[in-house]
Amino acid sequence: MSRNICLHWYPVAGARHAFPAELADTEHDEKVQAICDEVVSSTELHERSELAWITEPTCIRCWDQLFPDDPALAPAH
């Protein structure tokens, strides 16, 4: 059975992490958790540049949580 979830990817803590979409409206300075269990301040979700989005790699742990059985979709390491 498939599940449908909406995610936003944010470049925080050294990589682009997947967060549930509802966290986009979280108040500043609250702790939020990525799919990979990385915890950051919600302030970081709102203070990243487009350059950070381009230059930081995709979090492999988030990717593996979302696509555990599809190595063909894994980003280059």
TrEMBL record:
Q: InterPro entries under this entry? A: Zf-HC3
Q: What's one Pfam family the UniProt record gives for this protein? A: zf-HC3
- Mind telling me what this protein is named? Zinc-finger
